[in-house]
Amino acid sequence: MSSNITNKIIISYISRLYENDNKQLIELRDFAEKNKVPIILKDTEGLLIALMKLRKPARVLEIGTAVGYSACVFSDSCGCSVTTIESDPEVADIAESNIESLGFAEKIEVLRGDARDILAQLQNSVLSGEREPYEVVFIDAAKSHYREFWDLSRPLMTDESLIICDNVLMKGMTASDDYDTRGRYKTSIRKMREFLEYINSQEGIETCVLPVGDGVSISIIE
Q1: 3 state DSSP class of 217
Q2: pLDDT for position 62
Q3: pLDDT, tens digit, for every residue of 6-48?
Q4: Contact status, residue 219 vs residue 162, Cβ threshold 8 Å
Q5: According to the 3-state scheme, what is the secondary structure of 62-115?
Q6: Residue 120, C-beta contacts closer than 8 angstroms, at least 6 positions apart
Q7: How far apart are CA 31 and CA 97, in angstroms?
Q8: Are strands 134-139 and 157-166 parallel, antiparallel or unpaired?
Q9: What is the pLDDT, as a whole number, of residue 1?
């Protein structure tokens, strides 16, 4: 967890307050953390579960599957169906294994390939009526492509849908170049800043950026 967003004492306190009540998800989180697999942080998970329970979406689209943890969290929290996209075939294999072992195989669909290509395919399916539109989109993949993912996701959504993006503060680097001490992430920082300015300037969309986890943006399609 990053201390550039908030201090370690607060992070530790919030983490102690929240615990998923699904033992299998707790075990999967422990496995991911011990093996340094990037999954949603605990405080981010708490926020996302609250949003899911408030909205009660029937269909969620996730861009960036990793080991399948967040997709399982979504389905477990409100019984929704999840379509999740993963570009790495080996990671997708692991995700599908985890999803099956946790009992969510009938609820979660893993699509493999470049998200930009798959999102274009999903647009055709939604427009033709083969698929229902999504009520929540969760973006947690390559940060430099967030705007592309965002734009390609818009036609897949219903009115009053949510678009949630994780890691938008990038360990504080989005807010200040001082956190990029070696100057290694200049391009990613610039693109993320441009992305946040873009989504905050969209008419008919209400967006807020919260200092939760590594930064979360929440946009409501009005």
Answers
A1: strand
A2: 98
A3: 778 888 888 788 778 899 999 999 999 998 888 999 999 999 9
A4: yes
A5: EECCCCCHHHHHHHHHHCCEEEEEECCHHHHHHHHHHHHHCCCCCCEEEEECCH
A6: 152
A7: 14
A8: parallel
A9: 43
The whole-angstrom separation of Cα 201 and Cα 86 is: 29
Report how far residue 22's alpha carbon sits from residue 104's, in angstroms, rounded to the nearest whole number.
13
Chain-centroid distance, C-alpha 187: 21
**Secondary structure, 3-state, 129-158:** CCCCCEEEEEECCCHHHHHHHHHHHHHHEE
Residue 43: which residues within 8 A CB-CB, separation 6 or more? Answer: 11, 14, 15, 18, 212, 213
User: The tokens of 7 are what?
Assistant: 């201090």
Is 146:192 a contact under the CB 8 Å cutoff? yes
Both tokens of 73, joined, read 């969290």
Q: How far apart are CA 6 and CA 52, in angstroms?
A: 24
**Phi then psi for 60, rounded to 5 degrees?**
-120, 140
Q: For 9-13, 98-102, 149-153, which range has the lowest pLDDT when averaged over its residues? A: 9-13
Q: How far is CA 2 from the centre of its chain?
A: 17
Phi-psi region of 110 (alpha: psi -120 to 50; beta: other; left: phi over 0): beta
Collapse the DSSP code of 176 into the 3-class scheme (helix H, G, I; strand E, B; otherwise coil) and give the result.
Answer: coil
Report the distance separating Cα 209 and Cα 218, nearest Å: 6
